[in-house]
């Protein structure tokens, strides 16, 4: 299957919230999660904001609570009008610990059904990493999303065209006629010397990535006892009679008509207790997507769909000491991991379920429990410093 990359309208901000300040920002988080008011009128604070469709859906929103941080990706107007005022009211030393990205980001969605998951992460991030573009990558139940700095939009287009993508005017998207395969790019060898110009191949990119991570003392880790499931909120098809008044005139629909309220009760309940892990992604064209701690499933009842019997384990990378503009992290780590696991066992299918979650200051490689154990075993030696 070919990949199709489409830009989501709007400018977005990345927000880092330390866990010890989570409760101070919880009201802002819930305010963004549960937008109300009419975005076309200025009758409420939300009414002054952009980023919502006429049916009150977010173009894109990600709320992630992990063992290392709370991370929010939201429209820049929500960041500035909902989060920034609350942050400004915190004691000065505390407010400095919460960070809203200085530059804005653009988000594009990737429809790549049929591509093997681990290969998909690699193939989609390699062209951008090779072009020196810093990215954030979010795998969801339905779609992959990639965040890049707004200033790099033209470079993204050029990088995709250079890798065989074609721009479709009809779809307003970049389309790859055939999947860009990892085998077309020299890899696996780590003997290529690093240099100051952009990397010339993926092997060199991987080498640079791990050198950078080792210099910053980044070590992959798992959180004991943490097991995840990836699932979707159920959508409710609105009834015609619910949309129409008694006089037959159509009434404006609310976003609440299209979702199961029990899902949002579960989300509020989970967020109120500061979950060990919960990542929610809302996108205008998808039902809500969740990656969450299995112990939270009881809060949602039958409001979610998907493999709730799954058993995923995240491997975390604390990237707080790296600048936001670091490049090649996703591609370098995921690509090298795929290589190493295939070298260990060419017949293994563990990487077929690999996904990746970028948060403001961390990354998580997510695999099934068995695959995660093998992945951690493969990764740890790559982070060992070599004494010269």
Automatic annotation (TrEMBL):
This is CASTOR ACT domain-containing protein. Residues 173-201 are annotated as: Disordered. One of its GO terms (biological process) is amino acid metabolic process. It comes from the Eukaryota. Signal peptide: none annotated. Residues 101-160 form the CASTOR ACT domain. InterPro entries: ACT-like_dom_sf, CASTOR_ACT_dom, CASTOR_mTORC1. Residues 177-193 have a biased composition (Low complexity).
């Amino acid at each position: 299957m070919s990949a199709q990359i489409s830009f989501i309208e709007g400018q977005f901000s990345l927000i880092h919230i330390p866990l010890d300040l989570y409760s101070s920002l919880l009201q802002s988080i819930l305010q963004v999660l549960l937008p109300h008011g009419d975005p076309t009128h200025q009758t409420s604070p939300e009414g002054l904001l952009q980023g919502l469709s006429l049916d009150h859906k977010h173009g894109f929103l990600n709320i992630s609570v992990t063992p290392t941080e709370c991370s929010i990706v939201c429209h820049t107007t929500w960041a500035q009008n909902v989060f920034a005022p609350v942050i400004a009211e915190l004691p000065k030393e505390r407010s400095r610990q919460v960070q809203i990205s200085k530059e804005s980001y653009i988000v594009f969605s990737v429809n790549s059904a049929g591509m093997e998951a681990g290969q998909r992460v690699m193939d989609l991030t390699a062209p951008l990493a090779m072009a020196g573009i810093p990215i954030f990558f979010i795998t969801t139940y339905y779609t992959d999303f990639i965040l890049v700095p707004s200033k790099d939009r033209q470079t993204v287009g050029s990088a995709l065209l250079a890798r065989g993508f074609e721009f479709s005017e009809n779809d307003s998207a970049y389309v790859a006629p055939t999947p860009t395969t990892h085998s077309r790019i020299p890899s696996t060898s780590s003997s290529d010397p690093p240099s100051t110009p952009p990397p010339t191949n993926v092997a060199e990119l991987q080498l640079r990535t791990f050198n950078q991570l080792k210099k910053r003392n980044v070590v992959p880790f798992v959180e004991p006892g943490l097991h995840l499931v990836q699932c979707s909120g159920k959508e409710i098809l609105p009834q015609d009679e619910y949309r129409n008044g008694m006089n037959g005139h159509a009434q404006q629909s609310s976003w609440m008509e299209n979702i199961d309220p029990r899902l949002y009760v579960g989300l509020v309940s989970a967020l109120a207790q500061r979950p060990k892990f919960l990542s929610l992604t809302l996108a205008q064209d998808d039902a809500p997507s969740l990656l969450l701690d299995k112990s939270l499933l009881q809060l949602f009842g039958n409001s979610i769909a998907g493999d709730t019997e799954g058993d995923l384990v995240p491997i975390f990378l604390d990237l707080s000491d790296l600048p936001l503009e670091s490049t090649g992290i996703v591609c370098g780590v995921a690509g090298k991991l795929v290589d190493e696991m295939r070298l260990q066992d060419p017949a293994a299918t563990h990487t077929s379920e690999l996904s990746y979650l970028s948060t403001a200051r961390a990354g998580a490689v997510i695999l099934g429990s068995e695959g995660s154990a093998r992945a951690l075993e493969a990764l740890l030696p790559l982070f060992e410093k070599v004494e010269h």
